[in-house]
Amino acid sequence: MKSTLYLFIILILFSCKSSKLNLDLTKINTKVEHYQNGKIKNVVNTDSLTGLRIGFYNEFYENGQLKESGNYILDSYKQCCVAGLCDEYYSYKYGEWIYYYENGKIKAKGIYRIGKINRNTSCEGGAEINFGFVTEKWKFYDEDGNEIKPNSIEITEIEKSSYVTEWDLLRK
Asked: What is the pTM of this model?
């Protein structure tokens, strides 16, 4: 009887373990998405398992001008699932990014400072994830190429796009 109970406990413990994706062994696919007019919308490396962005990313305006360019890192956090904890994947921006106006002039450029934010999850207290913050070293420009002091809306616009989850991709 005791051995059956121990076996049952061991099975429960192992069934609740999360399946961690070995981020070093991910297979990367390069995808090119087009607008209806045939011009390139984005060129992105994605992880073949999750479909999330990893490595370089270039997005273009419908007129063909580059809109933003930089790199993503793939990461995970814990989510509470029916069988216990499981991994939820997301990509976040890191390193230098450059954003452009539709006329081709630089809108903003800088290096993301990676910090932590709390993301709401099905687990109590949520999860801390990596997040790219805009720092005072970033440079912002008007449409004529003159350096400007950014307002909070411009900074928030860039920061709100600094990570993407599997669920974000499903909503598109």
From this structure: 0.79
Q: How far is CA 80 from the centre of its chain?
A: 20
Please name the helix (run of DSSP H) or strand (run of DSSP E) that holds residue 170, with its range, or none: helix 166-171
What are the distances in angstroms from CA 67 to CA 97, 128, 160?
11, 29, 16
Spatial separation of the C-alpha atoms in residues 95 and 151, rounded to whole Å: 22
Token pair for residue 60? 């273009």
pLDDT tens, N- to C-terminus, the chain (172 residues): 544 433 333 333 333 333 445 555 568 899 999 999 999 999 999 998 888 999 999 999 999 999 999 999 999 998 888 888 888 899 999 999 999 999 999 999 999 999 999 988 888 888 999 999 999 999 999 999 999 999 999 999 888 888 888 777 666 5
20 to 25, 124, 129, 164: CA distances (angstroms): 12, 21, 16, 18
Residue whose C-alpha is closest to residue 56's, from 44, 67, 68, 47: 44
